[in-house]
Design a protein that fits this description.
The complex is a heterotrimer of chains A (229), B (729) and C (85). Chain B is α+β, with helices and mostly antiparallel strands and 729 residues long. The chains are: A alpha/beta (229), B alpha+beta (729), C alpha+beta (85). At the A-B interface, helix 1 and strand 6 of A face helix 7 and helix 9 of B.
């Protein structure tokens, strides 16, 4: 059975949510791994869940990105192991340089918890295997530092060619550049996104007017681990 | 409050000698109002606390109520009024920290937070600053510890401009076999886990036991800074320790610091304790006295059997949680404190932990007559304008400016989210469809006019909110926010509120399993705030997929009111917002109707006849119906002449009275005949009063007369954005 | 009238905890072996671009603003107002 690691730092708080969805909703063999115990070669896929690792002190994800666990993780591109960063996980991945850009405090200066709608462009790789280009997914955001920033050159040379999730018109609440809610490496192996797919994986959790289709990201992984991507 | 000379004499008698400075400090911290409820204990005995499913009532740091076989809910409410007035951000944040730790003491997992805020006028710059700080404090702390803030209550009133009331509640869940209910035994090690002790919060409890001084800068010693990162680690560590049954007993170090934690633990179980202060992990150099009374945050006390100690230490080290083993429990009945081998305190645990209760004098003030003043000759007003004023009132308008700053989704349990229903509904998160509902309510205007009935009405409102989401109300906790108990005309309000809660909760069959009291909420001129009784209740949800929200669902469905409307404009939001008056007889509590109507609503929902439900509270019937329309994005037509009333003479009485025990329900079009039959069968005063429209308008008529027509998008805009406009000027 | 650059540095008072500084110190700096760093305190930095007749005037203007508008909370914060070098 393929094994998924959910890395937990002090202050990570969505680990159990991700475990619930990966294990009980989608049926993967998943474990929460304390960052000190993390070692790359035991796992077939890695998820860095949301929360406030190390209190989000200094900058969100900044301290976690400098742990041995994340340094190990940086070798993942050599091993071809899928990595997903959700919210704080996304922040850790950009701080570690595994994904382009940076995540800054929301334009409003406030924490925002709301459901949003995102559109997927150029889906590639294990996390978006079951998603079609142009598909719209509903998921909630909950963050204070979710404003994605990338400079124009990097955007034009790299980001526009990569799998992307963009906030649908009217749903960019944090002022992200180019409406970017999530971005992946060119091959889609490493995906980071601010919205929480694990909070949108069961119908009963979707509020009026939204659908719980974040599940497709985890289902894509399950399929990809079985059949390749 | 420094100890009275009478109290100092008591201490001399108890010890049989003059107290050492350390011992005096211990007594002052423990006997201050905040910790020991000198003024309130006698009255609080009036509250009904028992029931078959109450596993643990008042007495420990939090109560436990069984909601499903083998599963219990642990919940509590607390106030942090005085610190929030001085440092709103940290005051509110540490309030969250404290209440969560109380839940942890029973080994429960915290799964929800509620914020119940009674704040000043946003147009007042000081109040505005306090509001922002308080909300951000709760947001930053609650979000970081991963506990969703799922519901709350907010009220804005000039009286709270400088003295806000910040009540917070936490709900936890546990399997009965994992609840930590026993006490420590002689020989158990005393382990202090969490943050190192420092000089913060020296005599914080004492600070909360007196009125705020003119010069708040002097209050710096009492300010504590929260550290949610350590709190989250505490939550994780305790989860692991309790799942492996490694701890015997857990206590929070809150008000009164180490002194209170040790003395209460020992006294509650007829034990004593020996502690060596030099072993305590510190942040900075402190004297033994300072160590005893510091209120540094995020610290807890564990009683651990010696043979389990090394396993506990392994887990603490894994999580990098600092700790110190400072002593052990024994059967001496005394708390003996050593510092580097020297005895610095030796006091009997029971006498330290439990000072004598006081009987305070009580006298109704002249002010109380406002609650009896009849309302005569109100000018007639344009009802459309009145509705607009009410929908934009900060007490009614959407609180999304606040709750969107809270992560209300973390934990993936929140099925009914803020703004979608009368109460929050959380699933248990096992493979069943079971869940719990939780809500908090208060009405400072009611309790300031008529504390007995006002408090009774708050219990009823909480009850109704739980019923609206199709849950079975089980139990409540209360927070009483009052003025100076040494002033009989202020203590009277407290006494009446307690009696009101005791009466109504008895009538409704709701045990009051816990509660707190906050006194001395008055300013430097001795004026008290509006006394406020905050009630937080939980309900059992058998099937979360059948929880009813308040948003209208479908065009052509019918709108019905359950319950008669009486002319009760006294103390109403309408009377204040539109006519500038705060007086009159507040709406009568109606316990018999509350019970009958709750039964009825339950039947309507379980049979699928009612598809959305909203209780009627401030703003009256018309505001409740409009709120449902806004949430659903669907128009409504209301026929005033079809509303069942008794004794009303004017249309504003019908629309805006805050008569109790009423609900607005959306009836599925195809089931309306059944609905009418059921109302006859159950003998409920109820009627179909309107319909859900496809056009986005609100149309109100009275027979052939048009009362008003309002555009839904405009009303929705006012409702959704008024608070933001008020806060961000 | 001249333009002055005035810095306002807001930190927690010595007696008030600074969990951010402590965490950065313990979990980032010390963990990576920089034992020579004995402590870190954090704060907020504001740079005011202010029109005034002389440096003292500029400083006092900024001090007044920070007081009146509660840019810092005098109960828990210290503030250092200085001209940018």
């Amino acid at each position: 059975m393929h094994k998924v690691a959910i890395i937990k730092f002090p202050g990570t708080n969505c680990d159990e949510d991700v475990l619930w969805v990966t294990k009980y909703v989608v049926g993967l063999d998943a474990n929460i791994v304390w960052y000190k115990d993390f070692s790359l070669n035991t796992w077939d896929a890695i998820i860095i869940p949301g929360g406030f690792s190390f209190g989000d002190w200094l900058r969100a994800g900044a301290i976690a990105a400098r742990t041995r666990a994340i340094e190990e993780l940086s070798k993942v591109l050599d091993y071809g192991i899928p990595v997903l960063g959700i919210c704080n996980g996304f922040q850790v991945l950009v701080e570690a340089g595994l994904l382009p850009g940076a995540l800054l405090p929301n334009e409003s200066g406030k924490f925002i918890c709301r459901w949003v709608r995102v559109k997927v462009e150029r889906p590639r790789g294990p996390w978006l295997r079951l998603v079609n280009d142009g598909d719209v997914l509903d998921m909630p955001i909950a963050h204070a530092e979710g404003r994605y920033y990338v400079d124009e050159d990097t955007y034009n040379s790299l980001v526009v060619k990569s799998p992307l999730l963009r906030y649908v018109n009217g749903y960019n609440f944090n002022g992200s550049s180019y409406d970017i809610a999530g971005v992946a490496t060119l091959d889609g192996l490493v995906l980071g996104l601010m919205p929480h797919p694990e909070r949108a994986s069961e119908d009963v959790m979707a509020p009026k007017g939204f659908k719980a289709n974040g599940k497709v990201i985890f289902e894509s992984l399950a399929r990809s681990l079985k059949e390749g991507w | 409050m420094p100890l009275s000379s009478g109290e100092i004499e008591s201490i001399k008698r108890i010890l049989g000698r003059d107290p050492r400075p350390e011992e005096l400090a211990m007594f002052e911290a423990q006997w201050s109002e905040h910790c020991s409820y000198k003024s309130s204990r006698k009255l609080l005995k009036l509250l009904p606390t028992k029931n078959d499913y109450v596993i643990l009532g008042p007495g420990r740091d939090a109560p436990a109520v069984e909601v499903f076989p083998g599963i219990s809910v642990v919940f509590k409410i607390e106030s942090h009024n005085h610190p929030s007035a001085v440092d709103p951000y940290n005051g509110a944040a540490t309030g969250i920290g404290g209440i969560v730790r109380d839940i942890l003491t029973l080994g429960a997992k915290p799964i929800a937070l509620l914020d119940l805020l009674y704040l000043g006028n946003p147009s007042n710059s000081h109040a505005n600053w306090l509001i922002r700080g308080i909300v951000k404090g709760i947001s930053d702390y609650g979000n970081r510890i991963g506990v969703p803030t799922v519901a709350g209550d907010t009220w804005f009133d000039d009286i709270f401009n400088k003295q806000p009331l910040v009540n917070v509640a936490c709900v936890g869940i546990a399997s009965n076999n994992k609840l930590v209910l026993e006490g420590p035994k002689p020989g158990d090690a005393i382990v202090i886990i969490g943050n190192a002790t420092g000089r913060d919060g020296i005599l914080g409890s004492s600070f909360a036991s007196k009125p705020l001084s003119e010069d708040t800068d002097k209050e710096i010693g009492a300010v504590q800074v929260g550290d949610p990162l350590t709190e989250k680690v505490l939550i994780d560590v305790l989860q692991e320790l309790t799942s492996k049954s490694l701890v015997k007993y857990i206590k929070d170090l809150g008000g009164g610091g180490l002194t209170t934690a040790v003395s209460e633990s020992a006294a509650d179980y007829g034990l004593g304790a020996t502690i060596h202060l030099n072993k305590l992990h510190l942040r900075e150099q402190l004297t033994p006295l300072e160590m005893l009374i510091s209120e540094s945050q995020e610290r807890m006390l564990l009683a651990v059997e010696p043979k389990k100690l090394s396993e506990v230490i392994n887990i603490l080290n894994r999580y990098d949680l600092t700790y110190s083993i400072i002593g052990h429990f024994d059967d001496s009945g005394r708390v003996r404190v050593y510092y580097k081998g020297k005895l610095v305190a030796d006091v009997p645990a029971k006498e330290l932990a439990r000072p004598q209760a006081l009987r305070r004098d009580s006298r109704p003030p002249q002010e109380a007559l406002k609650g009896l003043t009849p309302i005569v000759r109100l000018p007639k007003v344009d009802l459309g304008d009145a509705i607009v004023k009410l929908i934009s009132s900060p007490n009614i308008a959407s609180k999304r400016w606040i709750y969107e700053q809270y992560d209300h989704e973390v934990g993936i349990r929140t099925v009914i989210k803020p703004g979608h229903g009368d109460a929050a509904v959380l699933r248990i998160l096992d493979d069943s469809r079971r869940g719990i509902a939780v809500k908090g309510d208060a009405n400072p205007r009611y309790t300031s006019l008529d504390p007995f009935n006002g408090a009774a009405n708050s219990v009823a409102e909480c009850f109704r909110n739980l019923v609206s989401v199709n849950s079975t109300p089980l139990a409540i906790v209360d927070e009483l926010n009052a003025g100076n108990p040494e002033k009989p005309e202020q203590f009277w309000y407290f006494e009446e509120m307690v009696k009101g809660i005791a009466w109504m909760s008895s009538e409704l069959g709701l045990p009051v399993v816990g509660g707190k009291v906050s006194f001395y909420n008055e300013d430097e001129k001795g004026r008290q705030i509006k006394p406020t009784a905050t009630i937080v209740g939980i309900g059992r949800v058998d099937d979360i997929s059948k929880s009813t929200g308040l948003a209208l669902n479908e065009t052509n469905n019918y709108i019905a009111v359950v319950g008669i409307t009486y002319p009760e404009l006294g103390g109403s939001e309408y009377l204040y917002r539109v006519h500038g008056l705060e007086l009159g007889e507040i709406p009568r509590p109606r316990p018999a109707s509350e019970i009958r109507h709750a039964e009825f609503i339950k039947h309507l929902v379980s049979r699928g006849i009612a598809v959305s439900v909203h209780d009627v509270s401030i703003g009256g019937l018309v505001i409740a119906a409009i709120e449902m329309a806004i949430a659903g994005g669907l128009g409504i037509e209301l026929h005033v002449d079809r509303i069942p009333t008794r004794g009303t003479e004017r249309i504003d009485e019908v629309l805006f009275s805050e008569t109790q025990a009423r609900y607005i329900v959306e009836i599925k079009a195809s089931r309306v005949t059944e609905f009418k039959e059921l109302t006859r069968e159950y003998g409920i005063e109820s009627n179909v009063i309107g319909k859900v429209l496809s056009k986005e308008v609100i149309v109100i008529t009275n027979g052939n007369e048009d009362i008003t027509t309002l555009g839904l998008p405009d009303i929705a805009n006012l409702y959704n954005n008024s608070l933001k406009k008020l806060m961000e000027w | 009238m001249l333009i002055f650059m005035v810095e306002a540095i807001i930190t927690n008072k010595r007696s008030v905890r600074d969990p951010e500084g402590e965490t950065i110190h313990k979990f980032l700096v010390l963990r990576r072996g920089y034992n020579s760093v004995k402590g870190i305190r954090t704060g907020k930095y504001l740079l005011f671009n202010v029109e005034a007749s002389n440096p003292d005037d500029a400083l006092s203007k900024v001090k007044e603003i920070c007081e009146k508008l509660r840019i810092y909370n005098p109960v828990v914060h210290d503030i250092e107002v200085r001209l940018r070098a």
